[in-house]
Design goal:
With 325 residues, the protein is an alpha+beta fold. It has a single domain, classed as 2-Layer Sandwich (Ribosomal Protein S8, Chain: A, domain 1), CATH 3.30.1370.60. The chain is built from 10 helices and 9 strands. A 7-stranded mixed beta sheet has the order 2-3-4-8-5-6-7. α4 links the parallel β3 and β4. α1 crosses α2 and α3 runs parallel beside α10. The two termini are 21 Å apart. InterPro entries: Mal/L-sulf/L-lact_DH-like_ah, Mal/L-sulf/L-lact_DH-like_NADP, Mal/L-sulfo/L-lacto_DH-like_sf, Malate/L-lactate_DH-like. One of its GO terms (molecular function) is oxidoreductase activity. This is Malate dehydrogenase. Belongs to the LDH2/MDH2 oxidoreductase family. Keywords: Oxidoreductase.
Length: 325
């Protein structure tokens, strides 16, 4: 899904932002919140993470129109210390509460050296990299995870118990692209489970471990409730079943930032000179390709494939607005 399609049209970022913002406003979102979520979704498109960008708009807007997600949430910080914060999303999109949490974590990291925040009582927050990357702007390292409320099935193999939870690490650099790991903690195996597991059991057990870090921190610690326990605070929003944990730390508290950036730049540069992986024509570290795409596509437009176009047509027809192409 996150491979550039062979056939596509280019849509300029401003046109896409305007379209998505208008769609959310038709669902009842305030102008400011609609502009915010449109900005984040288009940023995700610009990085080539199409699975979590503007093609999600029909699902998100649909949840609001169907009364499952609050289109006008009152996001609040409900607990705070010098290094921590807890945000309640009031049944809205995770893009609001998790963003507040990420900004708070970075602010506290600059003030205290370390900062962390959770968000809860909200719907999907999209790709985790949107939040870990906020740390980069302040020369901090960031980490973000999320989880939705679900229960394991005793009929399923333990190695599949991931819940599709996202995870992201962001490491700042100087002149080189930052290192950004932005991933789901599941494996999209092309083979039947038993066959894929036999070929690489270590990969499945690493997946299991990473996913349950997301569950423990971005789910249970964040305060998403169990099925047999009522939510606290109460909510009427059916879609508000997710949470997040975001942390940042100020690198300058450990090393002079200029020295650190010089060394990390050399490290990244050397890695990019290595021999490419089989089937690839270049070597890079996680985040490098997204960094380049964001800058290039901001100038020439987002490549929007046929399936992506169909998703935009669905929401355009539902809320009665013109397409951006």
């Amino acid at each position: 899904m996150n491979v550039v399609p062979k056939e596509f049209i280019r849509v300029m970022p401003d046109a896409m932002r305007g379209f998505v913002s208008e769609a959310f406003q038709k669902a009842g979102t305030s102008e400011a919140d609609a502009a915010h979520i449109a900005h984040l979704l288009v940023l995700t498109d610009l990085r080539g993470v199409f699975s979590h960008g503007t093609r999600q708009t029909p699902g998100y807007v649909g949840m609001m129109l169907d009364g499952k997600v609050n289109p006008r949430p009152n996001v609040r910080c409900i607990d705070e210390s010098p290094t921590t914060a807890v945000y309640d999303g009031d049944g809205g999109m995770g893009h609001f509460a998790a963003y507040h949490a990420a900004k708070a974590a970075v602010k506290k990291a600059k003030e205290m050296g370390l900062g962390a925040a959770t968000s809860r009582n909200h719907f999907h927050f999209g790709s985790a990299g949107k939040y870990s990357r906020l740390a980069l702007e302040a020369d901090c390292a960031g980490f973000a995870v999320s989880c939705h409320r679900f229960r394991h099935s005793p009929d399923s193999p333990i190695a599949t118990a991931t819940g599709a939870s996202p995870m992201s690490f962001a490491i700042p650099a100087g002149n080189q692209p930052p290192i950004v790991v932005d991933m789901a903690t599941g494996i999209d195996a092309k083979l039947p489970f038993e066959q894929a597991f036999e070929q690489s059991p270590a990969a499945f057990f690493k997946m299991l471990g990473l996913s349950h870090v997301s569950h423990a921190l971005g789910g249970i610690m964040a305060g998403i409730w169990l099925f047999d326990k009522p939510p606290d605070p109460p909510t009427i929003w059916e879609g508000a079943n997710q949470g997040a944990f975001i942390t940042a730390f100020d690198i300058s508290r450990f090393r002079p930032i200029d020295e650190y950036k010089a060394e990390i730049d050399q490290h990244i540069h050397d890695a990019r000179q290595m021999q490419p992986a089989p089937g690839h024509d270049r070597s890079d570290l996680p985040g490098g390709l997204e960094w380049e795409r964001e800058r290039e596509w901001a100038e020439i437009g987002i490549p929007v494939g046929e399936e992506h176009q169909e998703q935009l047509k669905i929401i355009a027809e539902r809320v009665g607005i013109p397409l951006p192409f």
